[in-house]
Amino acid sequence: MKLLVTGGAGFIGSNFVNLFAEKYDITVLDKLTYCGCMENLRDVMNKITFVKADVCDAAAVEKAIKDCDAVVHYAAQSHVDRSITDSDVFIKTNVLGTHTMLEAARKHDVRFVHISTDEIYGQIESGSWTEQSPLCPRNPYSASKAAADMLAQAYFTTYGLPVVITRSSNNFGPRQFPEKIIPLFITNALNNRSLPVYGDGMNVRDWLYVIDNCEAIEMVMHKGKPGEAYNIGGGNEMPNIEITKLILSRLNKPESLITFVKDRPGHDKRYSLDFSKIKKLGWQPRFSFEDAMKQTVDWYVDNRWWWEPLVK
Ligand SMILES: NC(=O)c1ccc[n+]([C@@H]2O[C@H](COP(=O)([O-])OP(=O)(O)OC[C@H]3O[C@@H](n4cnc5c(N)ncnc54)[C@H](O)[C@@H]3O)[C@@H](O)[C@H]2O)c1
């Protein structure tokens, strides 16, 4: 089976490619922005094809997609803080880029696995979102992802394109750019720098190990019903302050490294997913939160060469 993986040099995409390079004939299409790098693919370079291109470049996308059986569309601008200071590239990549991908998939009738996010639902005080919950994005990143998610749904309804959508919670694991909370705090702690916690640290996220997410995405690619979305959760809801303390304790660093900083504007209070629908397909997380955190922290400890050039 031939797959086109966009954003395959980024965090989740490269974990997916490393996991499935033996099983599928994979072409990665990636622009190599600040958070995508060839080092993420170095162990599988002889097994895959790599195309450096922008998902907004219709000609390059069409050339790469034409013999493929499925596209797994990860490519995106993914950092909420950056979307607050400059949303332009978020709209271009996440909305127009997804549109370019959908158009090419439609022309060549290629199954489309769209990687969306739980952030499109907004925030929830109690209970959990199902796939039927309304989309209420509250920052430019999540708004651009909601637009992309709806476009993907529209291509199924309007053109019958076989689209399946995954909406996962916050991922963590190896190769995540050290601007996201877990790798930022691990690398800061390793450098004895302060860990800047937003607001009172009580914002809650559900944490999902990246390998579990990649396995779920593969399952949705095969077993997902066209036109349907699937929530993928880890079942590990935790306030940011708790995860911060956990990282410090794993690294034997003092809690005095924690600094509370001015909150992010429009900071969503809590995310929570009901992921019973994908469980019915036969998936559930394989890794315990403790094991996954240990593997993640160990990876950053063992791979300073990877992240040191990325932190100032
Ligand atoms: N990280 C999470 O916790 C999380 C959770 C839910 C959903 N998602 C979604 O998963 C996908 C991947 O997220 P990630 O955390 O791996 O992101 P990332 O920022 O680590 O990687 C994004 C990749 O896309 C590439 N890219 C960016 N713009 C491009 C363009 N115009 N053309 C081609 N390639 C481009 C980058 O070079 C990079 O390799 C995104 O769609 C994101 O919205 C992420």
Question: What are its keywords?
Answer:
312 residues; binds nicotinamide-adenine-dinucleotide; three-stranded mixed β-sheet; 18% strand; seven-stranded parallel β-sheet; alpha/beta; single chain; 2 domains; UDP-galactose 4-epimerase, domain 1; 11 helices
How would you describe what is shown here?
This protein has 312 residues and is an alpha/beta fold. The protein has two domains: 2-171 and 207-232, Rossmann fold; 175-205 and 237-266 and 289-310, Alpha-Beta Complex (UDP-galactose 4-epimerase, domain 1). 40% of the residues lie in helices and 18% in strands. The strands form three sheets. A seven-stranded parallel beta sheet has the order 3-2-1-4-5-6-10, sandwiched between helices. A three-stranded mixed beta sheet has the order 7-9-11. Helix 1 packs across helix 7, helix 4 (88-108) packs parallel to helix 5 and helix 6 runs parallel beside helix 8 (240-250). The radius of gyration is 19 Å and the shape is globular. The model has no long low-confidence stretch (mean pLDDT 97). The chain binds nicotinamide-adenine-dinucleotide. Nicotinamide-adenine-dinucleotide (NAD) binds next to helix 1, helix 4, strand 5 and strand 7.
